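Deliverable D5.2: sample structural annotation.
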Amino acid sequence: MFYRYCWAIYLLLCVACTDILPQKTTAERRYFDLIGFFEREIAQLKGTTVQKSVTLNDQTELQTSQLTDWASELSIFTASDINKPAFRDSYQIDSIWLADTLRISYTALNPKLRTQSLRIDQLRSTQSISHIAIDNRVKNPLYELSEVLHYTPARQYTISSRQKVRGMNASQLDIRAEIIARR
């Protein structure tokens, strides 16, 4: 008899500790899914060859290579994700049709946010993304950073970054990468 009560209490505890409500498997997204977009791009870009021009403070180097770590290469874009719970109501959303392109613009309402603007161009005919532009800014008493990023799917990307650390000369980094071949 004692064992039946223990068994009943055990079952009751198991049921009580079980969450009856269904769990959300994906977070609700208010803004464009930048991370999901780049995850799909990274999967498609595996094995591609890139011709890259890197300019640091007026010194330019040209490189041609087959990239194997696209996640690292495009991490500056995914770091600009505005679809975080803390940013839920932090961006104004505007859209406009430009011929066959829907341009969706997200503009920061707070000048202290790192990503100040994100612009997505989507083709009406194919519903595919044709261009992404990002403007990042950081400014505090010791450090200033300005990044302008452009990405054209499976074709090219550019990164223009200017940083100034208090007491040091400003540095400028410009990267222009062309995707020139697929495996």
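Annotation notes: Helices lie at 2-17, 34-45, 70-73, 75-78. Residues 1-26 have pLDDT under 50 and may be disordered.
The annotation will be released with the project's public dataset once the embargo ends.
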